[in-house]
Amino acid sequence: xxxxxxxxxxxxxxxxxxxxxxxxxxxxxxxxxxxxxxxxxxxxxxxxxxxxxxxxxxxxxxxxxxxxxxxxxxxxxxxxxxxxxxxxxxxxxxxxxxxxxxxxxxxxxxxxxxxxxx
Length: 118
Known about the structure:
There is one protein chain. With about 120 residues, the chain is an alpha+beta fold. The chain has 2 domains: about 1-80, no CATH class; about 80-118, no CATH class. It is built from 4 helices and 3 strands. It has helices at about 5-10, 50-80, 95-100, 110-115, and strands spanning about 20-25, 30-35, 45-50. It has a 3-stranded antiparallel beta sheet with strand order 1-2-3, covered by helices on one side. The longest helix is centred in the middle third of the chain and has 30 residues, at about 50-80. It is elongated.
């Protein structure tokens, strides 16, 4: 499973809380936080190129949801794991078999969907 603790620690240590926004023009963009600890207004985070600022702001504002999604995928992968090899050398998904009673070949449809296969 992917460890997201470093990403969560970085997010918790962000210098400014709240939603971030980028304001500017083609020359430069200033990134602002909607609030900060103990402050009554926006906090300037820094300057960036417009395209970079859009990425920085989007990632900051969506980081927690992205980390939650990575954790959820890891939990699903931990459930849908392969059995030891059967007599014929094939493997089955232990989770699918436990819930349906049928021996679903591994990788099962859930793992294939997570891997981007149909």
